[in-house]
Structure formats: structure tokens, C-alpha cells
Amino acid sequence: MSQLSLLTGVFGREAASRVANVGLPELKGLVDKSFLHRNSAGGFRIHELLRQFVSAKLKASPTALKEAETRLREYYASRLQERVPDLQGAGQKAGLDELAPEFENVLVAWDLAVRDQEFDALSKMVEGLWLVCELRGWFNEALGAMHRATLGMRDATDVSSYLKASLLACSGRCHLRLHQLEEAERDLKRARVEAEPAERPPLYAFVLNNLGLLELQKSNPIQAQEWFEQSLKLYSSVDKVWGVANVVNNLGDALQVQGRAAEAQDHYQRSLRIFRNLTDQRGLVTVLRNLGRLRESQNEFEEARVCFEECVSAARDLKDRYMLSRSLRDLALVATKTKEWELAEELLDESQTVAETMGDPLEMAHCTFAQARLKQAQGHRDSARGLAREALRRINRFSDSPLKPKILGFLDNLNR
């Protein structure tokens, strides 16, 4: 039983068997003795005081400890690697439901690989770990893991370019999600240098795609389009359909910002067809949200509502906080324009709560500004002004955000 002490938080029966050589009958016996707790989903958790006690016993046997740590690292490295195709397609929800509850142990395995400089294990884990964090909105957790790995291999001479580029690319992506543009640009440019386009086209295409997203966030849609087109060419050359769908959607964004709405819609529809074929819920949410925003900009509010409601439903199903907060806010803006005041308030309250739990200051600013617009629509100018000023205070740390001039223009109109 002492080897179970390596498993922190929730773990499954397979992890207990593979890491600690404890089978289901033994697990049931430990539950009966109240040494383990079993949750409704079938996961196990060892009581903390007991874990500390048996952990001390395990540490007294360095050989047994090392063997158990190796099994834990190899087990979770294999699981993450095996689940990557599922996380990009039909098995997305099942993969998340399997990996997310045991994420504490995933991080334990990751940190063991960092400590022991097991770079092959990190190479197996990096994409799967990033995908879980991307789909659950755990960007700070992913950044922490990538940073620890980067520090751990700082003095090593046998680290592959693939691992270096992957860590930098995933870090850059997470910084983008948190609108930390300087950090994103730094990591993505370094990733581009490390990546080998001939040897790892999908990784290089991923870097180019995110450089395009960076330019979009910097309000440079033409430069963004150039990066996206290069990324699309690479993804297409190796028939990486998931990558193609993502880049085509992003190209739609770049075209929409340029005022080319019809072309943008064509790209969104193409991306939507691919994601539906892949049964990729996250991809569907992303494209439907863009289609909804396009409909909303054309005052097609009912069509926009249908898109956003599907986004909210799918994001809830995936427990995807990043897309849930944004889709709720989008739906609230439609409710504001159709004068459904109570519904708009409820949606914005939930959106703000989700953004706060995620620690996403930019999204919190967006939510506060949406609340200001709601108050203005209701005729409450003083409340609208106060909320807009609060949104401006939140956004000041993001000097390059396109939201800032919108808030300033809104305040200027209120003060006339």
C-alpha cells in the first residue's frame, strides 16, 4: 500500500494497478476500512494523514521508491501521448473526463520527469498536457509546468529541438490566451527558431498559426493572414486535418477584421464542416462563436443566438471555462440588443464568475464593459459610466488591447 502514497488527489483503478501494483479487490478492501475514499465517478483518494504516514515508509526504501516513481512517470506519459488523437476529435470529452480528474498526478509525473531529466518522457507528455489545459482553461497551470521543464533542462546538452520548440510553442499559446503579448511573442519567436519545418511540419505549422493569432491580437490582420496561410500550407502538406480546421477558422477571423465578411463566412463554414466530421466539440464551439459574432454584427440576432446557445451547451459539457465565459458574454450581448434585461444580467454574472475562477483579467474587463453596455441600454447612464471606468481600470494593464479604445469611445459618448 505504501506505493499508493505517490498518487495525490484522485486516481483511478488502472493507476493504482500500474503504479502501486494494487488491484481492485485490494482497493475495495481499503475503501471498506476507510483508508481510501471512492467518489461517484469511481475515482479513489487516499486520506491525507494516511498518505503522509505510508509515504514515510516508502521513502525508507529508496529502491522501491525509485521503481514506483518510474512506473508513475511512464504510466502518465503513455496515457497523455495515447490520448492526443482523442483530445482533437470524437474522444475529446471522454479523454478530458479521464485525464482532468487525475491532473494532479499528471503534474507529479511531469515534475518527476523534469527532476530526473527524462526528456523522452517530457516529449511524450507535452502535447497532451497542453491540450488538457487548453480545453479546460488551465493556462496558468500549463505555464507553470512548461516553465519548470525549461528550468530543469537549462544546463542539459541532450535536449531535442522538438522538446524545446514544443515547450516554447505551448507557453506562447498560453500567454496568448492570457493576452500576455510580449511573453507570447518572445516564446513563439524562439519556438520558430527551434522547430524543424522539414522534420516536424505540424509543430512548425502550430507555431506559425499562433504567430498569426498574435498579430490578430495586435490588430494586424494582414500580417496575421500571411502567417495563417503559411501554416495552412504546412498542415495541408501532411494532411493534418485538425490543424487545417483551426487555421481556416483563424483565417476567417483575419478576413472578418478586414471587412471581408462574405469570405470570412466561407472560411467559417469550411472549418465547421471539418470539425463536425472530426466530432471536435471545442473546434465546433470556436467556429460557431465566430459565426454567431458575424451574425450579430449583421443584426441577425436570432441566428446569432442559436450559435451562441450551442456554444454555451458544448462548453458546459466540456467544462471549458475559456469558451464558456466568452460564449455567455456573447449571448448576453444578444439579450441586451433584444432588451431581455434579466436574462442579460444573469448571463453576464455567470460569465464574470467563470472569468474570475480562471484568473482571466482581460475577460473580466470584457464582462464589466458588457455590463456597462447593458446599463446604458437600460437608460442607467451613471451605472454605465461607473462600470465602464472599472472596465478601463482593468484593461489598462493591456495597453495594446483593442477593447481600450472601445471603452474610451463609450465613455466619451456618455459624457456628451
UniProtKB/TrEMBL annotation:
Top-level taxon in the UniProt lineage: Bacteria
Looking up InterPro entries in the UniProt record yields: TPR-like_helical_dom_sf (IPR011990), TPR_rpt (IPR019734)
Give TM segment ranges.
none
Using the record, list the residue span of the signal peptide; answer none if the entry has no such feature.
none
Fetch the PANTHER family from UniProt.
Answer: HTH-TYPE TRANSCRIPTIONAL REGULATOR RV0890C-RELATED, REGULATOR-RELATED
Protein name listed in UniProt: Tetratricopeptide repeat protein
Origin organism is Eiseniibacteriota bacterium
- Lineage per the UniProt record: Bacteria, Candidatus Eiseniibacteriota
